[in-house]
Amino acid sequence: MTFILETSKVVYSYGDGTKALKGVSISLEEGRKIALVGPNGAGKSTLLLMFNGILRPTSGKVLFRGQPLQYDSAHIREIRRKVGMVFQNSDDQIFAPTVYQDVAFGPVNLGFSKEKMKKHASYALQYVGLSGYERRPPHHLSGGEKKRVAIAGILAMESEVIILDEPTSNLDPASSEEIMDMLDELNCGGKTMIISTHDVDLAYRWADEVVLMEDGRVIRRGTGPEVFGDADLIKKARLKLPIVVDLYNELSCRGLLKGGKPPQSMLELTDLLESNARGSISQRREAPGRIHLCNVDGADPESIIDILEKSHLSYSGAMGPNAKVVAERSGIPLDFTYGVIDKCILKAIIGKSSLIMTSGRMMDRAMSRIRTYGKESGVEIEVIKLTLPLGSHTVVYGPGQARYKMLS
Ligand code: ADP
Q: How many CA atoms lie within 13 A of 376 on its CB side?
């Protein structure tokens, strides 16, 4: 097992004597989605600041790939490149006069050549769906856009780990969903993601591993169901249960749900309710709907519109920033922008077909989720992989365009 980050007996006291960490020893696996959860003042932000050397432990050690962090300027610069940090308040992070300069700041500091810097900054901006925003002053952007600029700045440095302190605080629900969807896709591309949050619903549905903190200590770690399955512990940590767990517990108390473990998603809860009511969800009479999977990377957007018009699909969703940009610029209305696979499965169960637009690296994840679901539930959902003709024109991305604009 590879641990990308570890702490050993880390204690940290701020200048005024506040003891924020009281002996934290944890090891985090590479390639995971990890959520530090806890009430305000638990020490989440302080621990995150340890991971990339912004703070140095009063005692104890922090290790990156098994090597203790060294705090001289050359090593610190290196660790901050490998472990990128997105602050809770974007205004603490974004300060250059234009979006482009801000995103290029990291690569410039790292001494990238002009050409490499340009390539990295442009790709990062395209990735977060902000191509065309290069010359804009960051302080004119919305909260969600600022967050995406901050993420682009980290991506431009090719960080291996991306840390986000309370990534959705102060964002509206749609922007929060977009950010979490982006974090999913980045994780799918191999990045280790660590967030802090006191939003238990978000942590429960998103994280592979939950680290519960209270009063400067880690008091439990495990999968969402493992950590949130202990209602007394959650109460002690002054948190609430995720809504699906709370509902599951209340229904179980009334004898309406028998057996099983707490569901991790709305899909699992709905299945559990249905199989309790009918005996099994594979007993349904109507045939399940199909799920069409479409890789939008480099595809001709007109052909997607064509498919939508011809296939009589009831719902469409997009996973990842690139697919959302394609949908927006092509004028394709989206029913689902987060939790897309589960939502399409929920619709398939009631006989409705859907289209999932996504980029190449997410295709396998979607496929495997639907297949696993089929095996576990006994409901075989047909998946149609669509191969689209590649766009023969140059695609112009730009803010405010209703559709793709083709050149020549
Ligand atoms: P969380 O992120 O879980 O809300 P923090 O890591 O921000 O927790 O804070 C842990 C403790 O350290 C709290 O008691 C907080 O008041 C204190 N603290 C945080 N930042 C500072 C600071 N700059 N100076 C003094 N105390 C601080």
A: 12
Alpha carbon separation from 205 to 37, 46, 85, 201, 393 (Å, rounded): 13, 24, 22, 6, 39
Q: Which residue range(s) make up the domain with 184?
A: 3-236
The domain that holds 88 is classified in CATH as: 3.40.50.300
Locus of tokens 């995103």: 103
- If you measure from the C-alpha of residue 317 to the centroid of ligand 1, how many angstroms do you get, rounded to a whole number? 40
- The dihedral over CA atoms of 176, 180, 185, 188, expressed in degrees to the nearest 10, equals 180
Residue nearest to atom 7 of ligand 1 (CA): 45
CA distance 271 to 397: 41
For residue 167, report the distance from its CA to the centre of ligand 1, in Å.
17
Whose C-alpha lies nearest to ligand 1, atom 25?
14
- Token pair 């999977």 is at which residue? 293
User: Closest Cα to atom 15, ligand 1: which residue?
Assistant: 41
pTM for this one? 0.89
Count the domains in the chain. Answer: 3
Q: Assign residue 327 a region: left if phi > 0, alpha if psi is -120 to 50, beta otherwise?
A: alpha
The pLDDT of residue 389? 65
Residue list, ligand 1 pocket, CB within 6 Å: 14, 16, 18, 20, 38, 40-46, 196
Span 156-207, pLDDT tens digits: 999 999 999 999 998 888 888 889 989 998 998 899 999 999 899 999 999 9
